[in-house]
């Protein structure tokens, strides 16, 4: 098995198209295929903040659900959009407002189609995905060794939000511990969630959220090669968003 794992997209559809092209994927008879039989995986946060969240939902739904040619695990932004589409009361901030505004511009019939796509994507997604042949686990915000193979509310909170302390930063985001520094497992963990300027290798972990929506780049990592492939963002650079 050969896998190309793509970091947090956040509605940056044009950059996603650029990255898929560089990775070698091509459309053939309405299917996105790779000449070497490689497959795609998405580590969540498909939407919010960026300009084309609806197009990203449609593409990932097509690849994961219809074609069954890709894998997807949800991020915290996916979780919030899912709850919005269920009709739950959620706050329209931290980027969700951009996705909702884009969705509300659609005709009613298309609104319901997109809503059902996102609900299906999320409901059918595992919290995290193991690929035993690659000695690999993908999880949106990461996963400690003790939680691999486990489920439940603690696991869900960790894979969606990271190792949160319960405190808040000045900008309202939750304070998080750097769990990767403590990771001692043999399996590789590929994750995102926290924007970094370059793909960050620590122990057997790789953070591939390189903040495309904040003007840096969209990154993929290829397995088993562990090769980084990225494309530049088309959005203005926001330095304070990076750690």
What does this structure look like?
This protein is α/β, with parallel strands linked by helices and 243 residues long. Helices cover 29% and strands 23% of the residues. The protein is built from six helices and 14 strands. It has helices at residues 13-23, 53-66, 76-86, 96-104, 108-124, 153-161, and strands spanning 3-6, 26-28, 31-33, 39-42, 70-72, 129-131, 136-138, 163-168, 174-177, 188-191, 200-202, 205-207, 217-223, 227-232. α2 (53-66) packs across α5 and α3 packs across α5.
Q: What's the short story on this structure?
A:
The chain has 6 helices and 14 strands. With 243 residues, the chain is an alpha/beta fold. The strands form 4 sheets. It has a 5-stranded mixed beta sheet with strand order 5-4-1-13-14. Strands 6-7-10-12-11 form a 5-stranded mixed beta sheet, with no helix packed on it.
Characterize the largest beta sheet: strand count, sense, and whether it forms a barrel. 5 strands, mixed
Mean pLDDT: 96
Low-pLDDT residue intervals, each spanning 5 or more residues: none
In total, the number of strands is 14
In which order are the strands of the major sheet placed?
A: 5-4-1-13-14
- Element-by-element helix/strand order: EHEEEHEHHHEEHEEEEEEE
Our measurement of the CA-to-CA distance between the termini, rounded to an integer number of angstroms, reads: 33 Å
């Amino acid at each position: 098995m050969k896998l190309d794992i793509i970091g947090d997209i956040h509605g940056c559809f044009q950059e996603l198209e650029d990255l898929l092209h560089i990775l070698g994927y091509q459309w053939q008879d309405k299917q996105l295929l790779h000449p070497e039989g490689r497959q795609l995986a998405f580590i969540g946060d498909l939407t919010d903040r960026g300009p084309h969240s609806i197009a990203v939902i449609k593409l990932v739904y097509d690849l994961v659900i219809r074609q069954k040619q890709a894998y997807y695990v949800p991020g915290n932004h996916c979780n919030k959009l899912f709850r919005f589409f269920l009709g739950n009361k959620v706050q329209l901030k931290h980027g969700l407002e951009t996705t909702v505004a884009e969705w509300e511009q659609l005709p009613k019939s298309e609104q319901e189609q997109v809503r059902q796509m996102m609900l299906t994507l999320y409901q059918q997604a595992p919290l995290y995905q193991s690929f035993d042949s690659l000695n690999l686990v993908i999880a949106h915000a990461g996963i400690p060794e003790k939680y691999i193979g486990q489920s439940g509310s603690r696991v869900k909170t960790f894979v969606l939000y990271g190792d949160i302390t319960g405190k808040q930063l000045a900008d309202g985001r939750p304070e998080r511990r750097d769990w990767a520094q403590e990771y001692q497992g043999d399996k590789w963990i590929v994750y995102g969630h926290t924007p970094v300027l370059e793909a960050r290798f620590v122990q057997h972990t790789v953070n591939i959220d390189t903040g495309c929506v904040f003007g840096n780049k969209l990154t993929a990592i290829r397995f088993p090669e562990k090769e980084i492939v990225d494309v530049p963002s088309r959005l203005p650079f926001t330095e304070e968003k990076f750690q």
